[in-house]
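Protocol step 4 of 5: obtain the predicted structure for the target chain.
Materials: sequence only (see below). No template structures provided, no constraints applied. The aim of this step is simply to have a reference model before the mutagenesis design in step 5. Sequence pasted as it appears in the construct record:
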Amino acid sequence: FFSSRRRHTRSLCDWSSDVCSSDLEGLVVKNLDSPYICGKRTEHWLKVKFVKTCEAFIMETIIDGKRNAAIGMYNEFAQAINVGTVSMTERRLKVANRGDVIEVRYLYASDDSRLVQPHMLKFRPDKTMEECTIDQLKFTNKSILFGKGNSNVAG
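Step 4 output (structure tokens):
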């Protein structure tokens, strides 16, 4: 890990390279001298999420009476699969059509290619549905989340 204390100091480039290559969801960073306060959020501990973006197409709008859109991508067999749901503003919903391509921000993709915390950024009229493939997705390395991964990340 990276620290201002000399005995723990690694090069910031080495540290950030390890973190980025590990497919982590994010990091918790803190001042080394700050206390942990159980059950309270403080400015001393910050969660930094590593978000990604991808293009997906609208499969369906207004799901369950809400202002949502089901979004899809093509899998390796050229089959359209549902990868999640995004909320839309009333204005965006009025102009959204089945097959429109949108840019989506997400935290990571699950093993079944579902997007975690997807959020619509903008329409992408310059992209086609055929360009919306699951090979764009970044998956979180679950072995690291459960302590089975590369010990050098915390290092």
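Step 4 remarks: The first strand starts at residue 26 and ends at 30. Residues 1-7, 149-155 have pLDDT under 50 and may be disordered.
Proceed to step 5.
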